[in-house]
């Protein structure tokens, strides 16, 4: 009885807020006489999004694929790195302070370095985005692997499980929540990394489209491209969230 | 193994925690320097540590000018974002209605790649300091607002009930109970906010290309001179560590002020 109106409120209110903001934006722009190159009306942005959809999709495909590639690389490398650092104490002692120190410096500043090292094609952009999204995965997974319930680890030892068996059936399930919360951060960072790299060097992609439209004052294109980028980001985030659900269910069932 | 030998071994292992990373860094620098000494590579790609150090010393006045510009803009952006973020976080938790109406929208904004909006700020505010600071505020305040709202929501129900039964006003409950209780969350948000403000200023400097360490990095990389690039990166790292330590110190001070020990989480 009580849940139905609650769900309507929980879902309806934020959507209503969003729509109200768009209406206010529209009225303010159309009646206030704001020039289009400063702030286009939302209806015009929507029309632009539809009319130049093929072009936008082309750019979105480039940025999206690069973001997905760097996300996959970052999660794979981050997970492998975490396992290596957890199982090799000497490596951990050597690298862990540097890794934590690295977290404190603004890593986006290194973007031009990747272009100097790897050139101006998508390799350098993917490498930079991977680099950006790798650290949260590494650190969180390490925390997760180390925080596995000691009782469960002891139990599996007393049941003469091998180190590998303990790893697969105890440590990995315990680390999954940490791993998945980090992959969500990594998904956002991968898209951010690709956009920043496209700002610096690209001749295609949504970041390139946004930056190259700026001097020409094509604000409509900028807004449409930003909207498209939001879709790409949310798509990636949504996919990761779905995978998280599947992963958690899998390990609960096993 | 005898007792003393074991003690010595454990002391050695304790020292290893400090020594191992330092030895690693030192070895890295030595290998880096000698490698480039015997096998020279393009100056555009990598510079030996000695050249980077020389750039730091010789170009000190110019580098300091850009460092100062970056530092001031980051601090401005961060402080503004802190004020705006905490205010918005407090405003949306005034009632359940406002929270339900605004909180999901702010979280939604946190998920999209905000950095893409940088060129719009250039369009609106030009290529000077205002557009970079405004962009940094835009980047940073979401995390602070979300953390503040979360903290204010998570105040223990019993304490609020106690306040009500002691006939405390809403404002008194807020300043005496809910706000102090939210402090650990707020500081966790401020730490993320500081990182975001730094990203905002640097990306802003990349895009506007007027002044600051981000500009030095861009300029050096396109000029094929890597020594200034690495020097600027080093300065930025020092800046990042210093600013992060400032937030930590502020947290300690606030902790002492409220007389309650708490720890907030570090960077996400």
Walk me through what this model shows.
- The complex is a heterodimer of chains A (254) and B (268).
- Chain A has 254 residues and is an all-alpha fold.
- Chain A has one domain: MetI-like fold (Orthogonal Bundle), CATH 1.10.3720.10.
- In chain A, helix 3 crosses helix 4 (89-104), helix 6 (122-146) packs antiparallel against helix 8 (163-200) and helix 7 packs across helix 8 (163-200).
- Chain A contains ten helices and no strands.
- The mean pLDDT of chain A is 86.
- Chain B has 268 residues and is an all-alpha fold.
- Chain B folds into two domains: 1-40; 47-258, MetI-like fold.
- Chain B is 82% helix and 0% strand.
- Chain B is built from ten helices and no strands.
- Chain B has helices spanning 3-38, 49-58, 60-92, 96-111, 118-125, 129-153, 157-165, 170-208, 213-222, 226-258.
- Chain B is flat and about 75 Å long.
- The two termini of chain B are 43 Å apart.
- The mean pLDDT of chain B is 85.
- At the A-B interface, helix 1, helix 4, helix 5, helix 8 and helix 9 of A face helix 1, helix 4, helix 5, helix 8 and helix 9 of B.
Indicate the topology:
The complex is a heterodimer of chains A (254) and B (268).
Chain A (H helix, E strand, L loop, with lengths): L2 H30 L9 H10 L1 H35 L1 H16 L6 H8 L3 H25 L3 H9 L4 H38 L5 H8 L5 H35 L1
Helix pairs in contact in A: 2-10, 3-4, 3-6, 3-8, 3-10, 5-6, 6-8, 7-8, 8-9, 8-10, 9-10
Chain B lengths: L2 H36 L10 H10 L1 H33 L3 H16 L6 H8 L3 H25 L3 H9 L4 H39 L4 H10 L3 H33 L10
Keywords:
A: 254 residues, mainly alpha, MetI-like fold, 10 helices, globular, B: MetI-like fold, 82% helix
Q: What's the architecture of the largest domain in chain B in CATH terms?
A: Orthogonal Bundle
The largest contact between protein chains, plus residue counts on each side, is:
A-B, 55 and 57 residues
CATH top level class name of the largest domain in chain B? Mainly Alpha
- How many domains of chain B? 2
Oligomer: heterodimer
Which structural class is indicated by helix and strand composition of chain A? mainly alpha
């Amino acid at each position: 009885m009580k849940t139905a109106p609650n769900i309507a409120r929980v879902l309806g209110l934020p959507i209503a807020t969003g729509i109200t903001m768009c209406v206010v934006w529209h009225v303010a722009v159309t009646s206030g006489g704001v020039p289009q190159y400063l702030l286009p009306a939302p209806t015009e942005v929507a029309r632009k999004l539809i009319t130049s959809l093929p072009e936008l999709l082309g750019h979105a495909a480039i940025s999206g694929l690069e973001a997905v590639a760097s996300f996959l690389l970052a999660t794979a490398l981050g997970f492998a790195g975490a396992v290596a650092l957890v199982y090799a104490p000497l490596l951990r002692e050597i690298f862990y302070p540097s890794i934590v120190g690295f977290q404190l410096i603004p890593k986006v500043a290194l973007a031009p370095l990747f272009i100097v090292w790897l050139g101006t094609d998508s390799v350098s952009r993917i490498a930079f985005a991977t680099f950006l999204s790798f650290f949260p995965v590494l650190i969180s997974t390490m925390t997760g692997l180390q925080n596995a319930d000691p009782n469960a680890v002891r139990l599996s030892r007393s049941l003469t499980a091998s180190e590998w068996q303990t790893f697969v059936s105890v440590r990995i399930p315990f680390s999954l929540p940490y791993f998945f919360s980090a992959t969500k951060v990594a998904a956002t960072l991968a898209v951010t990394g690709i956009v920043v790299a496209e700002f610096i060097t690209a001749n295609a992609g949504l970041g390139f489209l946004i930056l190259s439209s700026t001097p020409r004052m094509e604000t409509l294109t900028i807004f449409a491209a930003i909207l498209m980028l939001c879709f790409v980001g949310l798509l990636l985030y949504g996919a990761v969230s779905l995978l998280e659900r599947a992963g958690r269910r899998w390990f609960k069932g096993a | 193994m005898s007792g003393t030998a074991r003690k010595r071994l454990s002391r050695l292992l304790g020292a290893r925690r400090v020594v191992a990373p330092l030895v690693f860094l030192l070895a890295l620098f030595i290998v880096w320097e000698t490698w480039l000494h015997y096998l020279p590579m393009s100056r555009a790609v990598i510079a030996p540590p000695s050249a980077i150090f020389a750039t730091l010393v010789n170009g000190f006045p110019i580098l300091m000018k850009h460092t100062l510009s970056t530092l001031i803009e980051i601090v401005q952006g961060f402080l503004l974002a802190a004020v705006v973020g905490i205010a918005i976080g407090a405003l949306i938790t005034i009632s359940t209605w406002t929270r339900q109406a605004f909180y999901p929208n702010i979280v939604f904004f946190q998920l999209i790649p905000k950095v893409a909006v940088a060129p719009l700020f250039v369009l609106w505010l030009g290529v000077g300091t205002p557009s970079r600071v405004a962009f940094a505020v835009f980047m940073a305040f979401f995390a602070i607002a979300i953390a503040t709202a979360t903290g204010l929501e998570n105040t223990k129900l019993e304490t609020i009930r106690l306040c009500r039964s002691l006939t405390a006003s809403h404002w008194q409950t807020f300043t005496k109970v809910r706000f102090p209780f939210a402090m650990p969350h707020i500081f966790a948000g401020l730490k993320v906010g500081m990182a975001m403000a730094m990203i905002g200023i640097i990306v802003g400097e990349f895009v506007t290309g007027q002044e600051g360490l981000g500009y030095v990095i861009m300029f050096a990389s396109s000029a094929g001179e890597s020594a200034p690039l690495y020097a600027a990166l080093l300065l930025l790292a020092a800046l990042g560590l210093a600013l992060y330590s400032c937030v930590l110190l502020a947290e300690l001070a606030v902790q002492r002020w409220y007389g309650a020990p708490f720890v907030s989480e570090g960077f996400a």
